[in-house]
Design brief:
With 114 residues, this protein is of the alpha+beta class. 14% of the residues lie in helices and 32% in strands. The strands form two sheets. The protein has a four-stranded antiparallel beta sheet, with no helix packed on it. A two-stranded antiparallel ribbon has the order 2-3. The protein is globular, with a radius of gyration of 19 Å. Keywords: Signal.
Length: 114
């Protein structure tokens, strides 16, 4: 197994040094309010559950910035669609229980907001 890994690394290194490019699987990158379908006046919410993931985009395929817990403050700007089964975009109002800084923007599944 180590020989295959080393051989793969040699081929990859040679291709890159010779000016080749390597096709990598696409990753979900951060998405701001451009994914919103429904805008709203800014509204403050509290997180209604413990363990809600705060993400870089509207969906599980996006990287988690951190975890939100019951009582954390979230300022809502917009969401992906109707409130049920949607993702809400906004910012953290004050440092969260897990240390996410105030002002950090991201996405949370809407049903976790109260």
């Amino acid at each position: 197994m180590k020989i295959k890994r080393k051989a793969s690394m040699v081929v990859l290194s040679a291709a890159l040094m010779l000016g080749g490019s390597i096709a990598l699987a696409p990753t979900a990158s951060a998405v701001g309010s451009s994914a919103c379908q429904f805008n709203s006046p800014d509204v403050n919410f509290k997180v209604s559950t413990s363990g809600a993931r705060f993400r870089t985009g509207p969906g599980k395929r996006y990287r988690a910035i951190g975890t939100l817990y019951r009582g954390d403050s979230f300022r809502y700007f917009c969401r992906t669609r109707g409130f049920e089964n949607s993702w809400s975009y906004g910012k953290i109002l004050k440092r969260t229980t897990t240390g996410i800084h105030a002002g950090t923007r991201g996405w949370v599944y809407s049903k976790y907001l109260d």
